[in-house]
């Protein structure tokens, strides 16, 4: 698991400048400006989720989408958008495993959201 040397996300652009040149935070080919966040509790509100991501530079918005399985189990899809892939990469690396609740045993799992346009271009 990522050992976060900057545990307090309540920062300004100074934090962004510190990690921008670190290879660990460099965007990869599959990087996008949008993140998919797994592990958000079903009763979470958009405001709660936004409080986790808002302190990071480049934050744009949180999108929570309520879904239901065929058997009736409800779950949330969560997407978080940033200005660019570098900012999303920094947030993904920093918050990977973040525990939403004190009883959360696994923490958040954060991935780059699929970009259908990018996938079509890569297949050509």
From TrEMBL:
InterPro entries: RRM_dom (IPR000504). It comes from the Eukaryota. Keywords: RNA-binding. The keyword RNA-binding applies. It holds the Pfam family RRM_1. GO terms for molecular function: RNA binding. Residues 33-115 form the RRM domain. Coiled coil: none annotated. This is RRM domain-containing protein.
């Amino acid at each position: 698991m990522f050992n976060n040397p900057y545990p307090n996300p309540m920062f300004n652009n100074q934090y962004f400048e510190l990690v921008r040149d670190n290879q660990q935070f460099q965007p990869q080919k599959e990087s996008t400006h949008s993140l998919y966040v797994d592990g958000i509790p079903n009763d979470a509100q958009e405001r709660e989720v936004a409080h986790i991501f808002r302190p990071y530079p480049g934050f744009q918005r949180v999108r929570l989408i309520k879904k239901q399985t065929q058997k009736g189990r409800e779950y949330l899809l969560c997407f978080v958008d940033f200005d660019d892939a570098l900012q999303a990469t920094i947030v993904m690396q920093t918050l990977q495993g973040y525990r939403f609740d004190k009883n959360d045993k696994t923490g958040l799992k954060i991935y780059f959201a699929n970009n259908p346009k990018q996938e079509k271009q890569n297949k050509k």
